[in-house]
Automatic annotation (TrEMBL):
Residues engaged in binding CoA: 214-217, 332, 356, 544
Biased composition annotated in UniProt, kind: Polar residues: 1-13
Region of interest called Disordered, as start-end residue ranges on this chain: 1-39
Name of the protein in its database record: Acetyl-coenzyme A synthetase
Post-translational modification: Acetylated. Deacetylation by the SIR2-homolog deacetylase activates the enzyme.
Gene name as annotated: acsA
Residue ranges of domain Acetyl-coenzyme A synthetase N-terminal in the record: 51-104
Length: 667
């Protein structure tokens, strides 16, 4: 499907004569797709002129722009100031009091939307549930009462560990209603990962399910929680939702059934009147050191950007049925499955299970049966669908679709074209949305009724969002010059800090470029001002759209008794975007043990979760290091990718190490 105009989206890190790493890009993609007149005519923002006008106005007076959006919500008390900025700490809408759950539910229940579907849920086995805004409001209010009775107070942290069932949304919104800080932990994470996250956030409670259904079977989640909370002194109680028939142990005094508590709870609950900057949630994400970062988001600013970005990027209308395939365990699930849609009174389609269960057409079957109009997924899923074959898609009637979206990693132009032709039948605009856990909401994306798209770029920043691509010294790059993606001005849904670690917050995001937020991504801006993301420039890797810190995987590997040292790097992978390659030095007594490769992969799965399993483990007698002892990951990346090293090796301490690594490639 590629044309001669397209070369692969690749990022090269080169060492310049000054010894500094610079980034160069080799992508040249010339195709351009303007939205159809029909789409534009009905869109919230219907032309580039309108976008440019809005962008310029927001840039000239950000307070007026964001304040204007904030006016659309319910406030118990209006704010005193739109933004107080004390680099790098922001207070948005300070002095105001609101409640995001009230804005996501009560305002709709008090309108004609009371009986509109909020969630159309489909279980893996094909069972279905529909929760109207009225019913969701009732359930959330009841569960808010459960939390209050259990002693949860505003500001308390609550960990949530469950699969994709409506009760996950109910638990999240109930936390927001009472002012508890939710900390959702992806149900694929291990006991060790839960312990780490619960302890770091000092959570008081875990809400979990007995199990979660997966590919016709089920996974016992409660046993994993039991194992995790042996080492979490802050946990006072566990609420367990019954989803599967997993055999579990309920511990007296500690564990309570969801249905028992809900049976006793009243179904009305006053929402807490919370400060605009009241913490809303902590979500852990990988950074470039071994310890995951608790990204802290607060109430009002997050609400304002989640709602408005959802409205404009997905051009949401009341008739739409919106299907986001992300898990609530990731930021996309938080912002664009729960808060963004519900703040807009939208109908979401929530699917419990695997995309290829029972067959590769599950998503297309869902779209056809439920007449989904907007579909949002990850490039890694798109590539898997391409591999599975077009017939799985084309046998379904997808004519209800009007808009497609992608998120999580750069989409290669070939996958973009396939998505546009085979799924979108050349009539749906594609919004390639760039953002991060830290940004809380979409930063760079086409506006579907306005922006001409080009395969592979997230295009232009949203109004109110000031991004740029800069050199190492902070000066702006020329058009098409590779550099570092930064955000120049605070935005409402920005992270406020790393939970309990202001120093790490300042160092990670604000030390590289003075007064500008550093995203960790390399990018270039083309002659139209479109942003082309070239991938991470730190030790964070996107594997199948999930973000992993290579150092986390390294720490997991070295925690195994057989491992002396490990370095983990990525290499490009056709399906997953990136694959993890681990170079492992074994302790002498373990060298030659043939069972270790699999044992180490399983060990990583146990320490972090199956998503972090290295794709390849290579034995290394030693690792290439600089004289000061720093592992030269750049060389390992080259080896992992092409099996040869062309880059500069002058700082290498011991050349024999490289020879050994080359020799051992296939043993
Ligand atoms: O490298 C960028 C990539 O995903 C990173 C953020 O990962 P995470 O916090 O897990 O959030 C993912 C969902 C928002 C970014 O630093 N990324 C995300 N979206 C895109 C992307 N890379 C290219 N294009 C995108 N649309």
């Amino acid at each position: 499907m590629a044309t001669e105009e397209t070369t692969s989206n690749a990022q090269h890190t080169e060492t310049s004569s000054s010894g500094e790493e610079s980034i160069s890009s080799v992508l040249s993609e010339k195709r351009k797709f303007p939205p159809s007149a029909e789409f534009s005519n009905n869109a919230h923002i219907s032309s580039m002129e309108e976008y440019e006008k809005l962008y310029a106005a927001a840039e000239a007076d950000p307070d007026a722009y964001w304040g204007g959006i904030a006016e659309q919500f319910h406030w118990f008390k209006k704010w005193d100031s739109v933004l107080e900025w004390n680099t790098p700490y922001a207070k948005w809408f300070n002095g105001g009091k609101t409640n995001i759950c009230y804005n996501a539910l009560d305002v709709h229940v008090n309108s004609w939307r009371k009986n509109k579907a909020a969630i159309i849920w489909e279980g893996e086995e094909g069972n279905q549930r529909v929760l109207t805004y009225g019913e969701l409001h009732r359930q959330v209010s009841k569960f808010a009462n459960v939390l209050k009775i259990a002693g949860i107070k505003p500001g308390d942290r609550v960990a949530i560990y469950m699969g994709m069932v409506p009760e996950l949304v109910i638990a999240v919104l109930a936390c927001a209603r009472v002012g508890a800080v939710h900390n959702v932990i992806f149900a694929g994470f291990s006991a060790h990962a839960i312990t780490e996250r619960v302890n770091d956030s000092r959570a008081k409670m875990v809400i979990c399910a007995d199990g979660t259904r997966r590919r016709g079977g089920s996974i016992n989640l409660k046993n994993i929680v039991d194992e995790a909370i042996v080492n979490t002194p802050s946990i006072r109680s566990v609420i367990v939702l019954k989803v599967t028939d997993e055999e579990i142990h309920m511990h007296n005094g500690m564990d309570h059934w969801w249905h028992d508590l809900m049976g006793l709870a009243a179904d009305e609950s006053e929402p807490a009147e919370l400060d605009a900057e009241h913490p809303l949630f902590v979500l852990y994400t990988s950074g470039s050191t071994g310890k995951p970062k608790g990204i802290l988001h607060t109430t009002a600013g997050y609400m304002v950007h989640a709602a408005s970005s959802f409205k404009y990027v997905f051009d949401i209308k009341d008739e739409d049925i919106y299907f986001c395939t992300a898990d609530v365990g990731w930021i996309t699930g938080h912002t664009y499955m729960i808060y963004g849609p519900m703040l807009n009174g939208a109908t979401i389609l929530m699917y419990e299970g695997a995309p290829n269960y029972p067959q590769w057409d599950r998503f297309w079957d869902i779209i056809n049966r439920h007449k989904v109009t907007i579909f949002y997924t990850a490039p890694t899923a798109i590539r898997a669908f391409i591999r599975a074959g077009n017939e799985w898609v084309t046998k379904h009637n997808l004519s209800s679709l009007r808009l497609l979206g992608t998120v999580g990693e750069p989409i290669n132009p070939e996958a973009w074209m396939w998505y546009q032709k085979v799924v979108g039948q050349e009539k749906c605009p594609i919004v390639d949305t760039w953002w991060q856990t830290e940004t809380g909401g979409i930063m760079v994306s086409p506006l579907p009724g306005a922006t001409p798209t080009k395969p592979g770029t997230a295009t232009r920043p949203l109004p109110g969002i000031m991004v740029d691509v800069v050199r190492k010294d902070g000066t702006p790059c020329e058009a098409n010059e590779g550099g570092y993606l930064v955000i120049k001005k605070p935005w409402p849904s920005m992270l406020r800090t790393i939970y309990g670690d202001n120093e790490r917050y300042e160092k990670t995001y604000w030390s590289e470029f003075h007064d500008m937020y550093f995203t960790g991504d390399g990018a270039r801006k083309d002659e139209d001002g479109y942003i082309w993301i070239m991938g991470r420039v730190d030790d964070v890797v996107n594997v199948s759209g999930h973000r992993l810190g290579t150092s986390e995987v390294e720490s997991a590997l070295v925690s195994h008794e057989a491992v002396a040292e490990a370095a983990v790097v990525s290499r490009p992978d056709e399906l997953k975007g990136n694959a993890l390659v681990a170079f492992v030095t074994l302790k002498d007594e373990y060298v030659g043990d043939m069972t270790l490769r699999e044992a180490l992969r399983n060990h990583v799965a146990k320490e972090i979760g199956p998503i972090a399993k290295p794709d390849e483990i290579r034995w290394a007698k030693g690792l290439p290091k600089t004289r000061s002892g720093k592992i030269m990951r750049r060389l390992l990346r080259e080896l992992a990718t092409s099996n040869e090293i062309k880059g500069d090796v002058t700082t290498l301490e011991d050349f024999g190490v490289l020879e050994n690594l080359r020799d051992q490639e296939n043993d």
